[in-house]
Specification:
The structure is a single chain. α5 packs across α12, α6 packs parallel to α7 and α15 packs antiparallel against α16. The chain has three domains: 285 residues, Ribonuclease Z/Hydroxyacylglutathione hydrolase-like (Metallo-beta-lactamase, Chain A, 4-Layer Sandwich); 148 residues, Metallo-hydrolase/oxidoreductase (Rossmann fold), CATH 3.40.50; 88 residues, Ubiquitin-like (UB roll), CATH 3.10.20.580. With 553 residues, it is an alpha/beta fold. Helices cover 31% and strands 26% of the residues. β12 and β13 form a beta hairpin. 44% of the residues are buried. The chain is built from 16 helices and 29 strands.
Length: 553
Amino acid sequence: MSKEEFLFCPLGGSGEIGMNLNLYAFGKEDNHKWIAVDMGVTFADDSIPGIDLIYPDPGFLIEKKKELLGIILTHAHEDHIGSVALIWPELKCKIYATPFTAALIKEKFREKKIDITNYLQIVQLNGKIKLEEFEIEFITLTHSILEPNGLSIKTPSGIVLHTGDWKCDPNPLIGEKVDEKKLKELGNQNVLAMICDSTNVFNEGRAGSESDVRSSLLNIISGLKKKIIVTTFASNVARMESIFYCAQKTNRQISLVGRSMHRIYKAARQCGYLQNLIEPIDPRDAKNISRDKIIYLCTGSQGEPMGATKRIVNGIHPDVYLEKGDTVIFSSKIIPGNEKKLYAMHNEIVKNGVEIITEENSFVHVSGHPNRDDLKDMYSWVKPRSVIPVHGEHRHMMEQARFAKKMQVPHTLQVENGDIVRLHPGNSPEIIDKAPSGRMYLDGSIGVREDSNGIKERKNLALNGYLEVTLLVNNNGKIKKPIISFRGLPVDEIPETFIFDMEDEVDNICRTFSLQSKKQEQNLIENLKQSCRRIVKEKTGKKPFTTINIFRI
């Protein structure tokens, strides 16, 4: 008779920073029950034309949906909740979240016109839920967003701590400090494994406190004389409150710019945060305020094309503009991969006589993830038998495994997306199987697999351009002069004879084929594709995406 086992399986967020989706299972080999922890997205770069959002392939989870007991959300960052509304319609299960996270989830489903009322269960801070054999306790941590939670996941086989995103902030400004007492209590219960954030494992010391950033921002802002634009992550409510605080202390008004900034502000207020602050004013009204009496708090800290900051810098925002002597403060870090577009925007700003302040030249930001001293504390409190690093690239996870061993953690295990790990029984966690995993692209409003033909074709078009050859065939099967057109090819720079040569080549090929059958027609199309692409390659160095059209007239 098979024994009960406790399993862990990441479908996203292992070997990468973002797109978090983690599964836990308990039961006998042929009868597991599952829970999902987080459902996030990551953001596409310029290498995937037309794609903004990427999320984990949920196929494996959809297969298990009858055994899925619920989705538990640790906090409200997009890399942890961004794909819930995309995947949930295939699952139709309960969602568990603390009030602030729940407020943002409601908004996501409202935008999709989905009534989630009967499925969304709000869990109070430090609350507990029981899903059959799973007993899950929310543990207050600190991070760069409201209500970040670690999860104590208890089964008859033992306890696992899923940290989510966290750091040790002695003065987070909004929300409670890390629940050190609860973590130490866990440490006395022989924790099987800690599934832990690896983002900042290379950084010595501590991540730093929001309180120190506030003091630094106030000092900086107090010395500025003209208009101030502050851009930061909208989700960092403590940072948002700090900018309100600085505005009040320097006798300035504040205006929120950007949809996300307004959405987060509204959700925080609904949940009882951001009370007793000066009222923000509409950007349209802020235009009438003296330059030395206004702070704009904007989205777009990563140079997003449609973010408020980018629109302001480009001079296309209807209400906010920059003038010589103004200052832009980037109170955020540069997310790896965004360097090129952000530095280009920085250059555009300073070129116009505007001062720029970033984390590179001033203390305006602290991370929300644990540095090495923070990790030391967590290891010492929880005393896990094993550490399984997640939420990092492979180099981050490998370093955390090394670091955990230095801190006398008995066992570590490196995983990647799709690995099915047995946490119990056994003396240490081990990979026992592989689940299907991968990436889905949100293409417009449709989720497509990363290897879809549409994506492949679009990449080809973006890199190599487009060639179209149209053949008109009469009733006798005679082909008239071909119509050749191009898009995205440097044909203007080569002799016109190129077109004539291609027309001759098409004519010569067509003469060798009879169009009396579909098979012959298909053979002709394939031959024309190969020949035309070869000619273009010889003349331009490009091998275009090619379409051959045959019309009977």
